[in-house]
Amino acid sequence: MSDPTNSSRRNFLKTGTTAALAAGLTTQINSAVHAQGTDKLKVGLVGVGGRGSGAAVQALTADQHSELHAVADAFEDRLEAGLANMKATPVGDRVNVDADHKFVGFDAYKKVIESCDVVLLATPPHFRPMQLRAAVEAGKHAFVEKPVGVDGPGIRSVLETCKMAEEKGLSIVSGLCWRYHPGMRATFEQIHEGTAGQITAMQCTYNSGGVWDPRATREECSSEMEYQMRNWYYYAWLSGDFNTEQHVHSLDKMAWAMLDETPKTVSGTGGRIQRTDPKYGNIYDHFNVVYEYESGVKAFARCRHFSGSTNDVSDHIFGTKGRVDVFKHRIYDWKGEIVWRYKGPSGNMYQIEHDEFFASIREGKPINNGHYMSMSSMMAIAGRMSAYTGKQLSWEDCMNSSLNLSPESYEWGDVPARPVSIPGQTQFS
Questions:
Q1: Counting beta carbons within 10 angstroms of the beta carbon of residue 306, is it exposed (0 to 12), middle (13 to 18) or buried (19 or more)?
Q2: Is the pLDDT score of 31 beyond 60?
Q3: What is the mean pLDDT of residues 225-248?
Q4: What is the dihedral sign for C-alpha 273, 387, 161, 412?
Q5: What angle do CA 250, 256, 259 make, to 5 degrees?
Q6: CB under 8 Å, gap of 24 or more: what pairs does 269-272 form?
Q7: Stated pTM of the model
Q8: pLDDT in tens, 112-158
Q9: What would the CATH number be for the domain defined by 179-347+378-394?
Q10: CATH of domain 9-178+352-369
């Protein structure tokens, strides 16, 4: 199905912000309507998969005067399954989506945005820049799942959109949920206060057995586009590759430790060892990337999806006075003695981010996570680009990259699949 308004991401990324900025005053007035009040907030969900459905339940839990009013997905079967799951939860009585507010297709997000006050964006990452832009232009607060893009043009667009949101007084809350975890917040406060001394190196690891296997065969799909969309995780144009879609959480903690300073250079390797079957699309199954900062600090990042292998999801930060075990919320001196540990409550970070999101709307005190969610997503994209090309890249190279992974159009027909990248042969652009 063609997008009747021709809002392909390629065309979208070329548009300006004049009309949206002209509407800024009106939007600021509208966004204040729900502040301090108990009037109903209509929530819209774009992307009714597992993460999207979970986010919607957390949103309704966060604000008892909210209701899920409209939903959108590329596929009707996914939409109906997600709605059924949400109705079976403790907040199911506020899942009030009638037939007229169920939207299917590539442009369905526009209709959700028109219908709601608050929008939850949980589609495959490729669509995040265009959908966030549409939400902010319409004056809607947005929860934005991670990552927020899959290429340089997408990230540049999101940065521009989030600046627009700030000018309009809209809340933008990121799905980089560790920044909302009480233990993590306390740990990074200690890092920034210098309890471990000056940072000298960092290491983050996301080694696991992988995620879901491809959900559909080509024979079960009516087109190549449907096949790739249903198996979106395995196509770089949709997911950004798994180091971007998943490992971004680890990289975000490295960025957090560095007060969101961006690295100077990126140098990575990667490839496919286990996931070599064509059904796994064109993504890698392992990456090793080194990020070097202006000060000389290096962050060593590794991630892989190997079944039957030892898993390791951990983050470590090394300083002049000691080291930080990030997940244990502990800081050790160089004799191995614990000099600080977190003893407070844990808390559900997924719920906390929505609690704070909706509180910001009700109180008229906007939250804007736009800068760090964009920079952390770009760290992951930069690592992928370095590994794909086999080149050491500067941060400026990556941020200014012209590589746009968008298809020529959004239609249920043929769509070419990029070949698996080969370091030394795949060119940087």
A1: middle
A2: no
A3: 98
A4: negative
A5: 155
A6: 269/387, 269/390, 269/423, 270/243, 270/384, 270/387, 270/388, 270/423, 271/387, 271/423, 272/420
A7: 0.92
A8: 999 999 999 999 999 999 999 999 999 999 999 999 999 999 999 99
A9: 3.30.360.10
A10: 3.40.50.720
